[in-house]
Amino acid sequence: MRVFIIIILNCIILNLNAFQSGEKLIFNVKYGVISAGQATLQISETTYKDTIQCYLIESLSRTNSFFDNIYKVRDKIESIWDKNRLVTYKFTKKLREGKYRQHRIHFYYPDQNMTIYTKFGRKTKKFKHKRMDIPDNTQDILSALYYLRLKEIAVGDTHVIDVTADGRNYPANILIHRKETIETIFGQKECFVVEPILEGEAIFKQTGKILIWLTADEHKVPVKMSSKIIFGSFKAILKDAENVPYKKK
């Protein structure tokens, strides 16, 4: 009964048609004026434990051959997210950034409000396991973006989404700052300018302010992202898209 009520409430308060399976967003990543590489964000359908209908959300980031000589990046992040209940079952991060390596996995058990967090030790060459309690309806850092896209948002809003990632629980405050009309691959689009305030490591390590431009309609497609870091800033500009409700110009 509890699961049924949650599903009904989600249908009432969320726009479940904000995106569709097969959506693929490809971004050109720039460091200042230099083209640094490419990032892909995509969502498809999968099953978990053979029977549970889920989304597979994937984030892939890689630097180009020129930037590889400066700071080589090969990152892969995945989320397995229940299509109906909108809860996470598994979240995996494999990061290769310069000499830095990270391999972390969360297995979530939302009915028991707990997760098993596993972290690979570079020195021990083994995984360490930790059991953690988690809040109801917690998200990972990828599913949190898609969960936000399902919500009704307006300028001035602050949305709080509980996130469990990297061995910690924390509330992510999502600030809806303003609307801006910008040039995109779909022509000029009015967008919400959104700032996630994260205490953990996001898709990019948060050493400064992160801003995301979402189309100001029911789909809220991310078309631009910027992240200030210690030395300069990165921008990710949408350069191609599949299975989105707009025509490219």
Q: Topology of this structure?
A:
Elements: H1 2-13, E1 24-31, E2 34-48, E3 52-63, H2 65-71, E4 74-82, E5 88-97, E6 100-109, E7 114-120, E8 127-133, H3 143-150, E9 158-165, E10 168-184, E11 187-197, E12 210-215, E13 222-228, E14 233-242
Antiparallel strand pairs: 1-2, 1-14, 2-3, 3-4, 4-5, 5-6, 6-7, 7-8, 9-10, 10-11, 11-12, 12-13, 13-14
Mean of pLDDT: 88
Beta-strand residue percentage: over 45%
State the secondary-structure class: mainly beta
**Oligomeric category:** single chain
Low-confidence sequence ranges: 1-12, 202-206
Rg is 18 Å
Q: Tell me roughly what share of residues is in helical segments.
A: 10-25%
Q: Provide the domain count.
A: 1
How many angstroms separate the termini?
A: 48 Å
Strand order of the largest sheet: 8-7-6-5-4-3-2-1-14-13-12-11-10-9
Order of helices and strands: HEEEHEEEEEHEEEEEE
Number of strands: 14
Number of helices: 3
| Biggest sheet record | 14 strands, antiparallel
Shape: globular
Description of the structure:
With 249 residues, the chain is mainly β. It has one domain (18-240). Helices cover 11% and strands 55% of the residues. The chain is built from three helices and 14 strands. Strands 8-7-6-5-4-3-2-1-14-13-12-11-10-9 form a 14-stranded antiparallel beta sheet. The protein starts with a helix and ends in a 7-residue tail after the last strand.
Q: What's the gist of this structure?
A:
The chain is mainly β and 249 residues long. Helices cover 11% and strands 55% of the residues.
